[in-house]
Amino acid sequence: MASKGFFTKSFLLYHRILHRNLSIGKLYRRTLSAKLPRYPSQSTSLPSFDDISNKTLVVDMDEWLLKSNSIFPYFMLVALEGGGYLRGLLLLFSYLFLYFFASEELMLKVMVMFSFCGMKVDGFRLDRAVLPKYFLENVGLEGFEVLKKGLKEAKGVVCISRRVPRVMVDGFLRDYMGVKEIMGREIGMKYGFFSGVLMDWNEDKLAQKMEDVGVDVMAFGSCFGKYSQQLPFTEIYTTTEQEKKNWNTLPQDMYPNPLVFHDGRLAFTPTPMATLAMFVYLPLGIVLSVLRSLIFGLLPYRLSIPLSSLTGSRSYLVGQPPQYKTGTNRAGGQLFVCNHRTLLDPIAISAGLNRPVTAVTYSLSRLSEIISPIQTARLTRNKEEDRRRMSTLLARGDLVVCPEGTTCREKFLLRFSPLFAELTDKVVPVALNTRVDMFYGTSTSIFKFMDPFYFLMNPRPEYWVEFLEKVPTEGRSIDVANGIQRKIGEALGFELTVLTRKDKYMMLAGNEGIVKA
């Protein structure tokens, strides 16, 4: 018993140490306003601007814009999304091993090395496709207000990143914060690949930039204290980590540019402890994914739904599925029009109806078609040919169409293609929503056939299916499509957009998202 108590106390002590210290921000946890006696004008409170039209603002992203000083999650995202699970595991182990005795600079260089070494420079899009979501979720409202006012009224704004390399923050700052002047540390490149070597911070470059500005400069961040004698800083504002904990998180409706699209598999912020928990859970997640796939693929819905709930999966049906007698619809079957959340949408509708349906897709891998438990049909993107194929399928039975043409994770609806409105006199709108807690079941990668498996790997994946009232397709097809988009958006509380599949893939993957058969 004594031995058991000793090990219990030791484990709890170790857990408290990890919980308190396991953050790269701990390495920078000094009081930001301390040891800076030479400031021309120093304040730890938020400034109240009067006229800044002739001033330039220099903002330290790490110490002023972001609430948390921990930068480990961003490197883990690069390692996992850009290099795979093995690279992420190596980064996690090296971080845990070196944390207690390595210097802050060494820790930073180790993270860069494990995250970037050997990764292709050409086509690196994580700064635009993956990282912005996690940066935005860490932006402090109070710090953002300063940046927003500077972008609107000041002569210029320069944003610097002294710890996170420039290649990781460039897309976030330009596309979502609206910053045009960005300075940060660089990563070595050779033969078209990242070498993983983090270059030293170029203080001379910052000094030259300030000389080029040639006007009054307001600096935000304690790192500028060492330059107060050499650079034309008229005011320097700092904040402490404790003060930033009391800041509010920037709400989504205040994002300068809305976050409609983002990529990557992880649906959580990969802190060290959360990442460790994911790797421990991963073997069980694979087993659950295979088991749930077999349950839905081999058993009828009246058995598969209750059995899958025993594994943690949840399905919610809102509203009554439409009832009709065979032959009463002049088109043959019933046409269901839904928003697109994952590749499992038609299966969720089929389960809600408790009868088989056919799903049409614009771009689906052959493997996904083979393993699908329902019938699928490929469209050609030729309007006349697609109309003929869909009419033929609808004459044979129920048909599910996702007119958005691609999935969207956030609370937005993409533009609805109007072709479905030309097939029948009435359609049934279906509002779909999902919830995941570990992995996203969508991606723009070449491994899209893995999307359903990732969704089913979640500890508690959830699906909401809501059948809405039938809508007549009278009038112009584009007006009908917009009306159904609006009806589904109101049911879900989603915002409507005119964005398309091409917009999504050009932004996230640099292509049009067409999978060759």
UniProtKB/TrEMBL annotation:
InterPro entries: HAD_RAM2/GPAT1-8, Plipid/glycerol_acylTrfase. Keywords: Acyltransferase, Membrane, Transferase, Transmembrane, Transmembrane helix. It is found in: Membrane. GO terms for cellular component: membrane. It comes from the Eukaryota. GO terms for molecular function: glycerol-3-phosphate 2-O-acyltransferase activity; phosphatase activity. GO terms for biological process: cutin biosynthetic process. Pfam families: Acyltransferase, HAD_RAM2_N. The keyword NADP does not apply. SMART domains: PlsC. The keyword Transmembrane helix applies. PANTHER family: ANCIENT UBIQUITOUS PROTEIN, OS05G0280500 PROTEIN. This is Glycerol-3-phosphate acyltransferase 3.
